[in-house]
Amino acid sequence: MANVSLKELRKSYDAKSDVLAGINLEIAHGEFAVLVGPSGCGKSTLLRMLCGLESITGGELSIGGQVVNDLPPAERGIAMVFQSYALYPHMTVYKNMAFGLKIAGEEKAAIDRRIRHAADILKIDHLLDRLPRELSGGQRQRVAIGRAIVREPKLFLFDEPLSNLDAALRVKTRLEIAKLHRQLGATIVYVTHDQVEAMTLGDKIVVMNDGHIQQSGTPLELYQQPQNLFVATFIGSPKINLFTGSINAIDDGFLRIGLTTGQEISAEVDSTGANVGDAVTVGLRAEHIVENSLGSDVFSGEVTIVEHLGEANFIYLTLQNGQELVVRGDGNNQVQIGETLTVSTSSSAFHVFDAGGRAMRRLRPGNMISSKQSLASKEKIL
Amino acid sequence: MARSLLRPFGRAGVHLALGGYTLIALFPIALILINSVKSRSAIFDNPLALPTPDTFSLIGFHKVLANSNFLLYFGNSLFVTLTSLVLIILFGAMAAWGLSEYKFRGNRWLALYLAIGIMIPIRLGTVSILELIVKLHMVNTLSALVLVYTAQGLPLAVMILSEFVRQVPKELKDAARCDGVGEIKIFFQVILPLIRPAIATVAVFTMIPAWNDLWFPLILAPSDQTKTVTLGVQQFIGQYVTDWNSVLAALSLAVIPVLVLYVIFSRQLIRGLTSGAVK
Asked: Which member of A378, B9, B90, B243 has the lowest number of beta carbons within 10 Å of its beta carbon?
């Protein structure tokens, strides 16, 4: 069993500041955990600490039940895939994969068997005699993964492995990594700054910022119930719309919030601890807004920019007080710049954050907008 | 920029300039080679003339090779140069790796100290070196020369190799560490193969001064058993009479090993110089 457990893990380079401050995280055996966050958030440092390339300042790290704080990388049962692939340029693909095993004193026949097996899985059999410089980016990536596989590690570490590939190859390789995870049943920790990669690959996503874990959970949890403002703005594309306002009234299961746009909305969130008059931030995702006025809360504004994606449009509206609102509209609708558009949403779609940025739990977190709304859109389709 | 500067000359102009420089550089060597196979009177009659059947003479080579000491001097030079070369490259690369990879107290001061070695000619310290060698009872030994040449070559070697070691991507070393490769194995099996062009550069830069040196053999190892080629040639140069046939023949022979080594390293050398320049 290769579960990974981090207890109060700390890293600091000097006494003044912590790069990582007390990270607690459990990764189950066979789980695909993705560390995601903006650059400088400490995710790569954390990965390097898991690997053993960075020393651990405090706390406890165990892999498969064994505390490995002070073990060198080779004895931790891990293998790492680097962003730049880090293939030895002067060795053939075969030797690249064999190098670590040879150092470990494995028998020649066993090494050969493992390499053939890994090459078979990754379909790089025909490349074994080539040098890294004779390979394309995607092929190098596979070799780097192959070099990790032959070590038969308990834990795979990936450090932004796709960021050097072009867009098309990135999507393809992403799928292959997902397949590989299923095939090997291995525990994987994967670092990326790309939230799409994180959402598509991860069983568990760990959002980090400023050396702290902001939230960890399944992709859907993070999307539907972000625990704070940072996670809400980090997950989701385009970025969530944010309004500032204050609580006007607390009804049964609803908060009535006066926005600075001058409008009052009702949000279906858990109001425990909220008081009338509290300043709040309200979040609303572009895809939870529809281009009609049938929802419970209606906004209208002038269209400034339309981005056409084919199946959808991102429509940027400027509301009366200058606030910008992004709406994900139907790609078939022809929206003209300059026209006034009325859009609406349902009270269940709002995210509400208190003055400290902590989220109030949404009571109906699904993607549904409202029964009335979905009925309306169904009618439209029919 | 460079391109527009070259334009008035054009490609032919560039080749003309380089060809001219090559001629100037090769002229003394050609002069030695031509005159080494001429008779004594022909050398003085017309030093620039090519040997004709009349003037052709291998007398110099006969004298030099008959003098059994000359082969000994030749061997001494070769031994001193090659041993120094190996030591400079080995220790230079190790120091370069240590200084650029590991952070320790005094790292910068040590690097600076080595840089000073490039700026101050080692010959300024001849007196102290001689005193030291006398105290160590190493006068008239080849080891004394090897030590001095190693010391002389190390600063530049460390400087050049550090630059190249620093260019080896960090992730490559990390990958090796993840593979369980020890630090010493990383140095020999990952770093050294990758800085091969730089090593060739260092080899050429340190080999030639060591081979050509007259100063230290004259001071530290002038005995008959330890003379190097450059010192050995002096025996043909007298106060009143100089045996030019032998001098030129000996010098012609002395050029050969350097040329051979240069040809071996030059392919790598070009890569080393350009990769250092572009990156």
From this structure: A378
Residue A303: name the closest of A353, A346, A252, A337 by CA: A337
Instruction: Provide the domain count of chain A.
Output: 2
Q: What pLDDT score was predicted for residue B276?
A: 44
Asked whether residue B99 is domain-assigned, the answer is: yes
- Asked if pLDDT for residue A33 goes beyond 70, the answer is yes
Q: Same domain, yes or no, for A213 and A319?
A: no
Q: What is the pTM of this model?
A: 0.79
Number of domains, chain B: 1
- CB contact under 8 Å between A80 and B178, yes or no, is yes
Q: Mutating which of B178, B195, B268 best tests the A interface, going by the most A Cβ atoms within 10 A?
A: B178
Expressed as residue numbers, the domain containing A98 is 4-232
A-B contacts at Cβ under 8 angstroms: 61
Co-location of A173 and A261 in the same domain: no
Its domain, for residue B222, covers: 53-278
Same domain for A134 and A110: yes
pLDDT for the residue numbered B273:
54
- Residue-level pLDDT at B270: 65
B108 has a chain A CB within 8 A of its CB: no
Tens-place pLDDT, residues B158-188 = 999 998 898 888 889 999 998 888 899 999 9
Beta bridge partners, A329, equal A313
Q: Answer yes or no: do A51 and B180 touch at CB < 8 A.
A: no
